[in-house]
Amino acid sequence: MQRAAASLASSRSAAAWACSSTSRHAIASCSATARRDAVVPLRIRGQQKVPLHSMSLSLLSRRRPARTAKAAAAAAELAPASDEVAAGGGIAGTVQLGAMIVAWYLLNIYFNIYNKQVLQMLPLPLPYTITAFQLAFGSLVIFFMWATKLHPVPKLSAAQLAKIAPLAAGHMLGTVFTNMSLGKVAVSFTHTVKASEPFFTVLLSAFFLGEVPSPLVLGSLVPIVGGVALASLTEVSFNWVGFWSAMASNLLNQTRNVLSKRLLGGEEQEEFMDDINLFSVITVLSFLLSLPLMIFAEGVSFSPAFLQSTGLNLQELCVRAALAGLCFHGYQKLSYMILARVSPVTHSVANCVKRVVVIVSSVLFFRTPISPVNALGTGAALAGVYLYSRLKKTKPKSS
Q: How high is the pLDDT of residue 310?
């Protein structure tokens, strides 16, 4: 025993001597690596930047200890230069990520189909009620997940709830306006208009954060704006309410992201929260915020007595609404999980491809008439979004 204790003491002395003789850069590297390995179980290690259109998730889901200016500079030097896929795990990890992306696309496709069918079946538009139902369904799934201990229940402080509440409000209102748009125009047109999100990101970032975009980034906005305008002029199902609802959804979502970056960018986090719990809390808060808005705007119109008086097939309507709610919750949760495993640029590109898949599938399913000029406008807008995503990777760092 004494010999083992002596050996341990000798090892500790040798480690202490080695650390004292190690360069400052190596010490910073060791401490930075230890911190990342200790507190980031689901977040991709070394990932520093998250774009505004990815909802600034890392600002809420990562707990960072206080660091001096010198330590922060050392950590910045150690940040990886690559912004490619950050998920590891070799072939198995790649297959898992690919399966998640395919499921993300499929759930998004089915959500748009079922949601459009529900909105078409209703005798009058009820976007607030539909939104509350979708968020309620997701909240039930979340409470089941917590009750069965499939995922640990988060420990929230009042300060954290105050920071998450604006994100939940933006999430809820963005969904309301998306449902308004889907109830008025074709699914393909709604997603074409929503492809103009980068325009609002650049505009609001310049206004609130003082971030000046590069000429190349500004140039990528030209095909986006031009493509949306061209598609709008030639859209058969064009409706001003549907158009402005989709635009309002873009504006709300991007304002939420920009303001969350401004509010949370430099603050320390009290407790760690992973991406699944962050999305879950946002969903539950969004549902609670949607209830008074639904009652004030539409009353309790979505009731069995009201639906029976319209002659609707209640069973068919409820089944499709439940499937839409399940797909809505599933594809959004997968989006956040994928964002935790890949770089922001990769996620943005995958989201752009997803929008193409949703547009094409909705056109085929609903047999939406599209003229060659309309298809050209949609293609130009989506190409601009892809170009914007790639240019964000090469954007120079602000000093």
A: 72
Are 391 and 227 contacting, i.e. CB atoms less than 8 angstroms apart?
A: no
* CA triple 385-391-392, angle to 5 deg: 90
Distance, in Å, from the CA atom of 170 to the CA atom of 326, rounded to the nearest integer, reads 21
- How far is the C-alpha of 358 from the C-alpha of 345, rounded, in Å? 20
**Backbone dihedral region of 268: left (phi > 0), alpha (psi from -120 to 50 degrees) or beta?**
beta
Q: How many CA atoms lie within 13 A of 272 on its CB side?
A: 14
What does R_g of the chain's alpha carbons equal in angstroms?
24
Q: Which residue has the tokens 């001003």?
A: 240
Side-chain-facing half-sphere of 156: CA atoms under 13 Å: 18
- Residue 299 tokens read as 């009353």
Calpha distance 71→358 (Å, rounded): 45
Nearest to 350 by CA among 18, 51, 42: 51
Give the mean pLDDT of 353-368. Answer: 88
The DSSP result for 300-345, as a single string, is S-SSHHHHHHTT--HHHHHHHHHHHHHHHHHHHHHHHHHHTTS-HH
Instruction: Write the DSSP symbol of residue 55.
Output: T
Question: 364: which 2 tokens?
Answer: 């085929």
SS3 89: coil
* Residue with token string 């409706």: 239
Residue 196: both structure tokens together: 């103009």
Confidence of residue 304 (pLDDT cuts 50, 70, 90): low
**Other CB atoms within 10 Å distance of the CB of residue 183:** 23
pTM of the model: 0.68
Cα distance between residue 362 and residue 33, in whole Å: 46
3-class state of residue 29 by DSSP: helix
CA distance 69 to 80: 19
Residue found by looking up tokens 């150690």 in the block: 78
At 135, which amino acid appears?
L
Cβ contacts of residue 263 below 8 Å, gap of 6+? Answer: 163, 166
What residue has token string 């308004």? 180
81 pLDDT more than 70: no
Half-sphere exposure of 246 (CA within 13 A, CB side): 24
Instruction: Calculate the average pLDDT of the chain.
Output: 74
* Residue 394 confidence (pLDDT): 55
Do residues 327 and 172 touch, judged by C-beta distance below 8 A? no
> Residue 64 and residue 271: Cα distance in Å, rounded?
9
